[in-house]
């Protein structure tokens, strides 16, 4: 499967089978049996030679060219016809995995075992002792990268010890035990034709440089962000200037600096307007930073940006509904806000240009499916509340499991949630306190949108009222997986030792938490006892508090 949004991806099994470097039969690693179950994570890529050959073939057939190997690989892997995927000469590296009973103790050992089983791993893996050795290797590979068979934009640096990886854990998006070092961005020089303003969903007004098109990092670039009015002044970018541009994070083109030495005297300073060029509302400075905003919530640019965000992959993830179709729907007057999407009809869609019956039916089915049950955290993120991204939304629903709970929360209650500060709390309170929000939420109810509360733990279950702490490495499953099983049975998982805990689950190499648990007289279960407890709970829905003390 592809990684998708981190929770749900696409099944690409048939296409993966066409990649020759992916073994269809595994070999036992040296001196051990194959595990009963294993999971490996890999990167599908297109070698440089294959990319050049593919684009040459497409050019000969008068077809559009792929911008870069990354886009070509992604498009090739998602083909409906595996024969097309097979013709694209894709390759694959395995870069991590969970190997079950093999029990590797380090990342490097995991890769070695995966290689012994027949998986291809990158030849560019180096175990370094100390940060100086890391920098030395980074510099060596940066110099050598031009000669690699595949394109890279940086190097991933990881903690090798798997136990330390588990202790470090993850943020909302990334592991704390790994960091990507990106090579200096490729830059290009071009000329500024003009400056336009872009209004985002929160009203932030971003100046954008309109450029003479130039090829940069695999794609044609004709626009680049200037970030905000203050940056525009600080960099002294003028219309007609020659400028240096690069892709920020390898994605978004940005203006790095102007080149005053190249000026001819015909350049002009951009006059920042006092009113929104879209709706005419007076622009206001944001007191918290260098951003200028359009405060008009019904500004057409804000509405469009909000709708695009609402249907996006990290929000409601409505397949088949992208920017172009949103613009069509707005232009036709069929929608004016996100709730209107769920009252669209097939007849309305079929009246749009380039909308066929098949596409209309698929979109209507997708909207009906999404309307039935939207997870609360995704809904919160989709609303576009300032300062509430994907990670913050997850923190909020853990503390306030229903929309009604969150709407009723006061600032002090919100600030008591770990990871939620005053700025976020005030933003949430202000959002749910506004009349426009009340109207929008009522409209969602009117169209039948069902929001699923964050009920991670059932109100009543075999482990209801029981608290657990997990320490050490488990062999049958990861600690997060064990935690999910506990919560599914009604229990709660804690992160710190205290005398209020009911159980401490101990895996291999538990560290100091075991000693502290014993000193507090807490009940300790090893992995075998824990698995037996889960099995019995799943089998008979009994309450562990009713069991005799000796059995507990």
Task: Please characterize this protein's 3D structure.
- By secondary structure, the chain is α/β, with parallel strands linked by helices.
- It has 5 domains: 13-182, 2-Layer Sandwich (D-amino Acid Aminotransferase, Chain A, domain 1), CATH 3.30.470; 187-273, Nucleic acid-binding proteins (OB fold (Dihydrolipoamide Acetyltransferase, E2P), Beta Barrel); 300-372, Orthogonal Bundle (DNA polymerase, domain 1); 375-452, DNA polymerase, domain 1 (Orthogonal Bundle), CATH 1.10.150.20; 467-546, Rossmann fold (3-Layer(aba) Sandwich), CATH 3.40.50.10190.
- Helices cover 36% and strands 17% of the residues.
- It is built from 21 helices and 17 strands.
- It has helices at 13-16, 48-60, 69-77, 82-87, 107-117, 131-144, 162-168, 229-234, 300-310, 323-331, 346-350, 357-372, 376-383, 390-399, 403-408, 411-415, 422-433, 435-446, 479-488, 512-519, 527-540, and strands at residues 39-45, 91-98, 154-158, 178-182, 187-199, 204-216, 219-225, 242-248, 252-258, 284-285, 292-293, 374-375, 451-452, 467-471, 492-494, 503-506, 523-526.
- A hairpin with a 3-residue loop joins β8 and β9 (252-258).
- It starts with 12 loop residues before the first helix and ends in a 12-residue tail after the last helix.
